[in-house]
């Protein structure tokens, strides 16, 4: 199955020019052919093409099905790297594994202070289509670290850092089927005062293993661990 994305599948009856050209010119779809669409919010739509125009491919919805959200949710709060390609790579892989929400943090040691949220959303949508995900994660604009700590309401909250002190391995800290949030710092790690602020805000200190990981690798390792431990808990 090939999956297409439209944010408002029920009220839109055609694709934009780029997607129309891809459907008609590249995939060679014709009138009467079936397409599968998602709105990124759990719904899968089956549609048929009513006008195979390369600039405005029109369709009609035939049926709709719903995939309920997972019994757990992952919120990754991460300081984006100076090289944004590395974060785009991480985002793509995290979507493939499954992730509900990502917030980009402006920390004391952050090398990047701005992001192109529109481009990152396109990366997330593309990854969801490729991996046949019915959900596209919510991406948030960059926010100050202090402000994020105040507004995080996850059931389980952690900060992954490299400072000395008591840190529980993430896989041992997880309680299954919860709403999780994990903080991942920049290449220079979180500042000591930021670690203290997180602990005061109720974030537990965790480690992702003995290896020193790059930011994007740490984000992906956290996402993988949370997914894996919940999947194992279901069996």
From TrEMBL:
<dbReference type="InterPro" id="IPR015947">
    <property type="entry name" value="PUA-like_sf"/>
</dbReference>
<keyword id="KW-0489">Methyltransferase</keyword>
<dbReference type="InterPro" id="IPR029026">
    <property type="entry name" value="tRNA_m1G_MTases_N"/>
</dbReference>
<keyword id="KW-0963">Cytoplasm</keyword>
<dbReference type="GO" id="GO:0070042">
    <property type="term" value="F:rRNA (uridine-N3-)-methyltransferase activity"/>
</dbReference>
<comment type="similarity">
    <text>Belongs to the RNA methyltransferase RsmE family.</text>
</comment>
<dbReference type="InterPro" id="IPR046886">
    <property type="entry name" value="RsmE_MTase_dom"/>
</dbReference>
<protein>
    <recommendedName>
        <fullName>Ribosomal RNA small subunit methyltransferase E</fullName>
        <ecNumber>2.1.1.193</ecNumber>
    </recommendedName>
</protein>
<dbReference type="Pfam" id="PF04452">
    <property type="entry name" value="Methyltrans_RNA"/>
</dbReference>
<feature type="domain" description="Ribosomal RNA small subunit methyltransferase E PUA-like">
    <location>
        <begin position="15"/>
        <end position="61"/>
    </location>
</feature>
<dbReference type="InterPro" id="IPR046887">
    <property type="entry name" value="RsmE_PUA-like"/>
</dbReference>
<dbReference type="InterPro" id="IPR029028">
    <property type="entry name" value="Alpha/beta_knot_MTases"/>
</dbReference>
<dbReference type="GO" id="GO:0070475">
    <property type="term" value="P:rRNA base methylation"/>
</dbReference>
<dbReference type="GO" id="GO:0005737">
    <property type="term" value="C:cytoplasm"/>
</dbReference>
<dbReference type="Pfam" id="PF20260">
    <property type="entry name" value="PUA_4"/>
</dbReference>
<dbReference type="InterPro" id="IPR006700">
    <property type="entry name" value="RsmE"/>
</dbReference>
<keyword id="KW-0949">S-adenosyl-L-methionine</keyword>
<feature type="domain" description="Ribosomal RNA small subunit methyltransferase E methyltransferase">
    <location>
        <begin position="69"/>
        <end position="225"/>
    </location>
</feature>
<keyword id="KW-0698">rRNA processing</keyword>
<comment type="function">
    <text>Specifically methylates the N3 position of the uracil ring of uridine 1498 (m3U1498) in 16S rRNA. Acts on the fully assembled 30S ribosomal subunit.</text>
</comment>
<keyword id="KW-0808">Transferase</keyword>
């Amino acid at each position: 199955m090939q999956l297409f994305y439209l944010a408002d599948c029920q009220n839109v009856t055609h694709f934009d020019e780029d997607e129309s050209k891809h459907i008609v010119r590249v995939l060679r779809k014709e009138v009467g052919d079936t397409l599968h669409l998602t709105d990124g919010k759990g719904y899968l739509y089956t549609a048929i093409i009513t006008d195979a125009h390369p600039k405005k491919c029109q369709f009609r919805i035939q049926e709709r099905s719903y995939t309920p959200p997972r019994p757990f949710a992952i919120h990754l709060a991460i300081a984006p790297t100076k090289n944004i390609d590395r974060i785009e790579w991480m985002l793509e892989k995290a979507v493939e594994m499954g992730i509900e929400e990502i917030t980009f943090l402006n920390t004391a040691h952050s090398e990047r202070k701005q992001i192109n949220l529109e481009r990152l959303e396109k990366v997330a949508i593309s990854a969801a289509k490729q991996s046949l995900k019915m959900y596209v994660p919510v991406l948030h604009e960059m926010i100050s670290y202090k402000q994020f700590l105040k507004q995080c309401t996850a059931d389980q909250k952690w900060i992954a850092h490299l400072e000395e002190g008591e840190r529980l391995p993430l896989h041992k800290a997880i309680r299954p089927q919860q709403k999780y949030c994990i903080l991942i710092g920049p290449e220079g790690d979180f500042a000591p005062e930021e670690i203290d602020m997180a602990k005061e805000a109720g974030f537990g200190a965790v480690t992702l293993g003995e290896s020193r990981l790059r930011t994007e690798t740490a984000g992906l390792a956290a996402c993988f661990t949370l997914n894996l431990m919940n999947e194992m808990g279901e069996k």
